[in-house]
Every structure is written in structure tokens, then in C-alpha cells.
Amino acid sequence: MNRIVISLLAGLLCLAPLAVSASDPVHKSIADLYHEKAKLKGQQVQLQGKVVKVNNGIMNRNFIHLQDGSGKEGSNDITVTSEQTAEVGDEVSVVGTVTVDLDFGSGYLYPLIVEKATITKIKK
Questions:
Q1: Measured between alpha carbons, how far is 124 from 122 in angstroms, rounded to an integer?
Q2: Distance CA 78, CA 63 (A)
């Protein structure tokens, strides 16, 4: 009897689709982030894009602006905060947490931002 149960369980495990772990980042374009921001709030995402602006050392973090060619004016640029930095023109992969309606005070309100990101330069 035990062998039958074990065989059935082994068969089910082999046939079951692999699930994505809750900690695995979701791959998205910048346009997708804007379109799905409410759904993605608090989730880890992975983006790829070109660095178009960098502001280092502000509020103990670096602010990096990315564009990937997706989206329209107003939804084609995403700000990423990180302890790491990059240079304008770098092609990078970024993994961070989506935050919505973040108010740093003093007029710095971000309707959408990716925080605490790791940045990896893409080798060409």
C-alpha cells in the first residue's frame, strides 16, 4: 500500500508544473509597470533599460532613471532607488520593489517608483 501511495505522489510531483516562488521577481517593461502599478504594488520586479539620468547621494540613496523604449510621454521613464549606482548610457538590469504614491516630503512625490533595487550592468 505504501509503495502505491509513494508511486502516485512521485508521479504527481513529476507532472505538476513548476510554480514561480513568491520571491522571484516578475519581469516587466516600464509601460507594464505604469499600466499594472496597483497590482504590482509591493512586489519584486525585474526591468531592463537604459540609464537616462542619475542623482547620487540623495537621502542616503541613489536615484536612477531608466527608459526601455516602452510607454508614452509620462509613462516611459521609471525612477529607481538603490545603494548602487550606474552611469548615464549604461544598459542595466534592475530588481527592486514597486512602491506607489511615495511622498518623501518637500514636494518629492512619486506616483510610481522602484525601491531598494540591485543594479547589474548588461555586458554588450
A1: 6
A2: 10
pTM over 0.70: yes
Q: Where are the beta strands (DSSP E) in 14-108?
A: 26-27, 44-58, 61-67, 78-82, 91-103
Where in the chain are the domains? Answer: 20-121
- Do 97 and 115 meet the contact criterion of CB atoms below 8 Å apart? yes
Backbone phi and psi for residue 40, each to the nearest 5 degrees, phi listed first:
-90, -10
- One-letter amino acid identity for 29? S
Over the stretch 53-98, which tens digit does the pLDDT of each residue have? 999 999 999 999 999 999 999 899 999 999 999 999 999 999 999 9
Please say whether the structural domain 20-121 has been given the CATH code 3.20.20.80: no
Q: What pLDDT is stored for residue 24 in this prediction?
A: 86
